[in-house]
Write a structure and sequence with these properties.
Chain A: This is F-box domain-containing protein. Chain A is an all-alpha fold. Chain A has eight helices and no strands. The longest helix of chain A is centred in the C-terminal third of the chain and has 23 residues, at about 100-125. Chain A is elongated. In chain B, helix 12 (about 245-260) packs parallel to helix 13 (about 280-290). Classes of the chains: A mainly alpha, B alpha/beta.
Chain lengths: ~140, ~525
């Protein structure tokens, strides 16, 4: 095959592992944009593993295995990121607060995430409630990517 | 309304023509007892409440007119004129205004004493008993029979203090009146609070309104028997308070950290919560236990709550929801709920504790222990109960204020500062819109506490907050040693507070092993941890 032919035949969608590697390095906003490209990309960006990577990218050592079970049970990494991790990180890092270390940030995010789940449980029985009060509203309104 | 005639008089003499003073007027709220304004009536003037705004406007015009006419004004006003019916303030103002407008025909009259006396001098507020007012008035009338050329009886209002400070002073005067059992004066002052408070910013407004309501109850001796209604919506109220600010979250997170550290290594843990409410504290602890290195222990929770008016089992419902959460995150969970009117009614036998159980026990109390001081011997009983449970750790979160003083005035002063700071922090941190449900419910939640501190006595007064220092003495003499909360708790609390608005307003302070949440320099909530003294 000539060089031109080889180049023409390359399609990123045929090389999922490369695609995923690229997606792993994006931030949440770019992932949102990527989700709009095509159905395949949309499905890929909804993969929770991608969001897990996003949540704990800077954490070293990586969190223990038990965390995944808990997070998935409480709603998944994408929700964790949007509801807790992102607001926590952005608020703490823009403030004058001295960095406490990512381990503490993660712990706090997880605690707040659990509170969020419980609140949704508490409200589950109520029908027709007004905008669901959540103590995490102070962080941000969750945006569906 | 506060008047300081003597001061005003000298002010008048010195005023001259120059005035950059502002006339502060207010919109009088329509009084339920329509007709004549009561406060004016106390001073001897008849002004219809409905006319108040009108009169105020005219007075303002008068002031402006007087300010601009210098030589002419002096000569004009110093003529001998007769004033008919000095108590008719509205008529007098009309006549004065017509003097400055030659086109208008009216009875020209000047009377400097009603003029200066019907306005507010704010240099400082003092409680004015009715008799003193009348005697002042009479003196002035005598004095001002001979107008001196230099004396321009201008309508002068010096507002050297902000409305907020005025408000506070009025409330303090009211408290003093209550302390001396002068209910009539207190009543008048309470109504005055309503008048001023429309000028203040929201946080002052809120707290002063609530104090005013508390005073109202005290004066009219309305002691609402809250007990039946209380339990049904107090949970909901606290939920809204939970969402409106970092206070309860701080309390829960710091207490949980202490409990977590005390439970390290244990395989069976048992937490006894003295006021379960909606159980908001426990999800975070369960999650931390679930992710504990080495796996979670089995977790038993005993929740205590007040009886529900409709006999529904609120405790069990909460327990069930916590069980669902526990199941989701993989923690072995057991729940027991006990209903009790007061913690002092509890008996150690019901807790089903035995040494053979081999469980580590933690006792947790958030904003609950202070209620026991209302009954003699209550707190001692409960502390003995705690001791007989032999816990690993006892976590106590309480309001950092002394609202349990013997002297009413001191209690009131403390409460005023405490709740004003609280409302200030709520408003400034801007978490909830001022008219949101959370904000309104928080106001009710705190308002009930304020009413209780101000209006109730004896067993009814349950909001007997005490400071950390006082609790330290109490716990120490009961046989408990303090447990230091540690840097993990401090870091978590700091991060939590940094998430909230208010700039640097919220602070975590470490106080000899205990953590305090404060707003600027004022501590609001204190978390402390204890264990039984060994040996």
């Amino acid at each position: 095959m000539s060089m031109e032919e080889k180049r023409g035949k390359f399609c990123i969608n045929d090389n999922m592992d490369v695609l995923i590697e690229i997606l792993k390095r994006l931030d949440d906003r770019s992932l949102g944009v990527a989700a709009c490209v095509c159905r395949l990309w949309c499905a890929l960006t909804r993969n929770d593993a991608l969001w897990e990577h996003l949540c704990f990218r800077h954490l070293s050592p990586p969190p223990p295995d038990g965390v995944r079970t808990v997070v998935v049970a409480l709603g998944g990494y994408r929700r964790l990121y949007m509801v807790c991790v992102k607001p926590v990180l952005s608020r703490l890092r823009q403030g004058k607060l001295i960095r406490m270390g990512t381990r503490h940030e993660v712990e706090l995010s997880l605690s707040l995430f659990c509170v969020d789940y419980y609140e949704r449980l508490l409200l589950g029985g109520r029908i027709g409630g007004a905008d669901s009060p959540s103590s995490l509203m102070f962080l941000c309104k969750a945006v569906n990517v | 309304m506060k008047r300081d005639r003597d001061r005003g008089n000298t002010e008048v003499a010195a005023a001259g023509g120059s005035s950059t003073r502002k006339l502060k007027m207010w919109e009088e709220q329509p009084q339920p007892d329509a007709g004549m304004d009561e406060l004016f009536a106390v001073l001897g003037y008849k002004v219809k409440s409905t006319d108040m705004a009108d009169v105020a406007e005219k007075l303002e015009q008068l002031e402006m007119a007087m300010g601009t006419t210098t030589e002419d004004g002096v000569s004009l006003l110093s003529t001998d004129t007769v004033h008919y019916n000095p108590s008719d303030l509205s008529g007098w103002v009309d006549s004065m205004l017509s003097e400055f407008n030659p086109t208008q025909i009216g009875i020209s009259g000047h009377e400097s004493s009603p003029c200066s006396s019907n306005l507010i001098y704010d240099d400082d507020l003092r409680a004015i008993p009715g008799g003193a007012i009348f005697s002042n008035y009479d003196n002035k009338r005598m004095k001002l029979q001979q107008p001196s050329p230099a004396a321009v009886p201008t309508a002068v209002l010096v507002d050297s203090q902000e409305p907020g400070v005025r408000l506070v002073h009025t409330l303090m005067a009211c408290a003093e009146a209550v302390q001396h059992n002068n209910m009539k004066l207190a009543n008048a002052l309470v109504k005055h609070v309503g008048v001023i408070s429309s000028f203040t910013n929201r946080s002052y407004e809120k707290s002063c309104y609530l104090f005013r309501r508390g005073f109202g109850r005290k004066i009219y001796k309305i002691y609402p028997n809250d007990n039946s209604l209380e339990s049904s919506y107090s949970d909901a109220l606290q939920m809204h308070f939970y969402e409106s600010g970092p206070y309860l979250k701080f309390a829960h997170f710091t207490a949980n950290q202490a409990i977590l550290e005390a439970f390290s290594g244990a395989s069976k843990v048992h937490v006894i919560d003295f006021s379960l409410k909606q159980g908001m504290q426990w999800p975070a602890l369960m999650q931390a236990l679930a992710l504990r290195p080495g796996g979670p222990p089995s977790f038993k929770l005993t929740g205590i709550g007040p009886p529900q008016p409709d006999n529904s089992d609120a405790l069990q419902e909460v327990g069930w929801k916590l069980a669902r959460l526990a199941d989701t995150i993989g923690v072995e969970f057991e729940f027991k709920g006990y209903v009790a009117n007061s913690l002092a009614d509890l008996d150690v036998g019901i807790f089903d504790i035995s040494p053979s159980n081999d469980e580590s026990i933690a006792v947790n109390s958030v904003f609950e222990l202070h209620r026991l001081m209302a009954r003699p011997g209550g707190i001692e009983r409960v502390l003995n109960l705690i001791k007989s449970l032999n816990p690993e750790i006892v976590t106590i979160v309480e309001q950092e204020a002394n609202h349990n003083g013997v002297v009413f005035l001191d209690r009131f002063n403390e409460a005023l500062h405490y709740y004003s700071t609280m409302f200030d922090s709520l408003e400034t941190s801007g978490l909830t819109r001022p008219d949101s449900q959370d904000s309104l419910m928080t106001e009710v939640y705190l308002g009930r506490q304020i009413c209780n501190v101000v209006a109730c006595e004896g067993v009814e007064r349950v909001e007997r907050h005490e400071t950390l220092a006082q609790w330290r003495v109490r716990m120490g003499s009961a046989g408990f040693d303090p447990v230091h909360l540690g840097s993990n708790a401090f870091k978590q609390a700091s991060m939590l507070l940094a998430l909230f608005g208010g700039g640097d307003g919220f602070r975590v302070e470490e106080n000899d092993g205990c953590l305090m949440l404060g707003w600027h320099t004022r501590p609001l909530i204190a978390t402390s941890a204890w264990r039984l003294r060994r040996g």
